[in-house]
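anyone seen this seq b4? input:
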Amino acid sequence: MADLDNKDQTEMDPADMEDVEEVEEEETGEDNSKARQLTMQMMQNPQILAALQERLDGLVGSPSGYMESLPKVVKRRVNALKNLQVKCAHIEAKFYEEVHELERKYAALYQPLFDKRSDIVRAAYEPTDEECEWKQDEEEELTVSKQEEMKEKAKVEEEKKDEEKEDPKGIPEFWLTVFKNVDLLSEMLQEHDEPILKHLQDIKVKFSDAGQPMSFTLEFHFEPNDFFTNTVLTKTYKMRSEPDESDPFSFDGPEIMGCTGCTIDWVKGKNVTLKTIKKKQKHKGRGTVRTVTKTVPNDSFFNFFSPPEVPESGELDEDSEAVLAADFEIGHFIRERIVPRAVLYFTGEAIEDDDDDYDEEGEEADDEEGEEEADEENDPDYEPKV
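predicted toks r here
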């Protein structure tokens, strides 16, 4: 009977086993829920987060130790792979040199179109009706009644302009509008720069000649104005497509090695890159006060043409490095985006396309923020911000 009893205890009906498994799963689910709640509470503790961050910072860039554990014969083979990688870097450098040559070739094909764009902007050429006709997308097509309404409205506007005797030439403030529409450039603009940039007629990109070191020059063409006598302001960026011998694995395409601006021949009293300030100084002994006039640098877009000089050693202080890094980014952006697609930045269409790239990420960030706020409200220790 004892054996039979033991058998009854050890062998159970399959249905009973299923019940047991379900109970265990439920209990496990409850445990997981408690664990998640505990984790969330811990992650809301600033001290714990700081400790975790400190630990993670210490792990960044730390080797796993796997390489050190490899046998000597395997390490030799890894070294052979690294030598192959260096050769790959040199081939990649040649690839980018040929890309630069292609850019030069196609720049010559683009230039007649850019020249015509410039002629239209500065009123040197009036486009024909055929050139001005723009076929709208189906989604943009208007109904017949709407078209008539628009025509009538346009007619009234034209009559009003005729009465006011307005006769705008070309496309006024074309490049200034482009600059104001692009965050990267508008951040550089000051109010005192805008009257000058109204005279900017064109921006051109010139590549270095074949066989010469890689470089490109941005040319800013201005009409005669009251601020400086230059007709063209230039900024040249020197590049290198060659792996660094001391660190060949860091090669990631051509890098800018330095840039050269130009001297702006300002009309007296019109230099917006400088400002005059008056300071009162008190004599320590006599107690008399005098006013001293000093000329100091002033924030301006036109500081773009006076970048920090890179010493032969290549070593710069942190401030100069930051200025040059931002400068290089701006130079590349003007070359690769602004000049080829200027009209789309003028209308704002290119900016809308740029914004579309970030919509989804932004929505996810908003959702995460909402979840965090909900978690805070559910926290019994949560105190709303006043």
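The first strand starts at residue 200 and ends at 207. Residues 86 and 249 are 7 Å apart (CA to CA). kinda curious what u guys think
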